[in-house]
Write a structure and sequence with these properties.
- By secondary structure, this protein is α+β, with helices and mostly antiparallel strands.
- Strands 3-4-10-6-8-7 form a 6-stranded mixed β-barrel.
- Helix 2 crosses helix 9.
- The protein is elongated, with a radius of gyration of 29 Å.
- InterPro entries: ABC-4/HrtB_transporter, ABC3_permease_C, MacB_PCD.
- Part of the ABC transporter complex hrt involved in hemin import. Responsible for the translocation of the substrate across the membrane.
- This is Putative hemin transport system permease protein HrtB.
């Protein structure tokens, strides 16, 4: 470590250049991670926030909320099953809304309308106003991002292409579905919007899109065998079944994987070139008794210190960047992901130095001394 620190101090400019490259790579990895996590959250925040463990869909519809149709009465059957502590129906649809009394600045807003049973475990906690009431189907609670569009408690909303109206009585936070702000309403209200066209409910009595289940030790296969034409999956699988979620997440992960692979290659080349430039010095050190293990530990220590400091600077720059990003940009830094990617970058940096260490073990002290004489 002593020799590593001495050399870092001696070659400040050279190591500073490598450090800047590492900082830029780390910065890009964390920024991309934040954007990926932000998009993922925007797409499925409502599903992720729900205190459910499993979801039951209609069989053959790839665990998709937008395609499945079940009858609400099925809730009672599911609640009688082993390890099912509670069950709650849910419906989802997309719509465009406008204030019933629009002003000059009013604009149409795309939203996700989610039908739930008021007071069930699917109803999110309100941060302002009042909760849902099953007896007041006109009243809804909305995600607080609608405030930025000029909506407030007491506003009545008209739904484009429908005679139905909704009145905002409360706001919730971090509730988005398919990248749209979520509006929670009663199941009756949701049905009147979703199945306004005659026959669109496929003649199913009290239709819902899915039924959320609570219970840690539920056996999905047992439920699938017991109830034909249904498919019970974990909440994680249901999130993957949301339209576009898997493709969007896969794209971001692919970009991150390529970035990490390129980072490993770039860092390996930098450290290798640096080692080549110091071949003579390493030869002299070996001639006066320095072992390969000692020199290898020195290189490893240098890479570790340089990478650690660069990654920390990259993290600080990422958090600083997050402060100046526009409010509407889907950017969310998850501390767990930041730690995981930081460790991954550190491991990649250290592995990249192994090529340099192997080069050092091949250096012949006599030839190295000969070249400097």
């Amino acid at each position: 470590m002593f020799l590593a620190l001495k050399e870092l101090k001696h070659g400040k400019f050279r190591f500073l250049m490598i450090g800047i490259i590492t900082v830029l790579i780390a910065w890009l990895v964390f920024i991309l991670s934040g954007l990926g996590n932000g998009l993922s959250t925007l797409s499925a925040a409502t599903f992720k926030n729900m205190k459910a463990d499993y979801v039951t869909f209609e069989e053959g519809f790839r665990a998709s909320m937008s395609r499945s149709l079940l009858t609400e009465s099925f809730v009672d059957e599911l609640e009688k099953q082993d390890n099912v502590s509670s069950a709650a129906p849910m419906g989802a649809t997309m719509a465009t809304v406008l204030k019933s009394t629009p002003s000059k600045d009013s604009e149409k807003v795309d939203i996700a309308i989610l039908g739930i049973t008021a007071g069930s475990f699917l109803e999110p906690s309100i941060i302002e106003g009042n909760p849902l009431n099953n007896d007041k189907s006109l009243e809804v609670i909305a995600n607080d991002t609608l405030k930025d569009k000029g909506f407030k408690i007491g506003d009545t909303l008209s739904i484009e292409g429908s005679l139905e109206k909704m009145k905002i009585i409360g706001f919730v936070e971090n509730e988005t579905y398919n990248h749209l702000p979520a509006i929670f309403t009663t199941l009756d209200k949701w049905r009147s919007i979703q199945f306004a066209a005659p026959g669109s409910d496929n003649s199913i009595k009290n239709p819902v899109n899915g039924i959320m289940l609570q219970g840690e030790d539920i056996d999905p296969q047992k439920l699938n065998d017991l109830f034909h034409n249904t498919e019970t999956v974990t909440k994680a699988a249901a999130i993957q079944g949301m339209p576009g979620y898997k493709e969007e997440n896969g794209t971001i992960m692919m970009m991150l994987a390529f970035l990490l692979a390129i980072s490993a290659f770039v860092l390996a080349v930098f450290f290798y070139v640096l080692t080549l430039q110091k071949s003579n010095q390493f030869g002299i050190l070996k001639a006066i008794g320095a072992s390969n293990a000692f020199l290898g530990k020195t290189i490893m220590s240098q890479v570790f210190l340089l990478s650690f400091i660069s990654i920390v600077v990259g993290i600080l720059l990422t958090y600083g960047t997050a402060l100046i990003l526009p409010d509407g940009m889907p950017f969310s830094l998850d501390i767990k992901l930041v730690v995981i990617y930081a460790i991954l970058l550190l491991v990649i940096s250290i592995l990249s130095s192994l090529i340099s260490i192997r080069k050092i073990t091949k250096i012949d002290p006599l030839q190295a001394i000969g070249r400097i004489e």
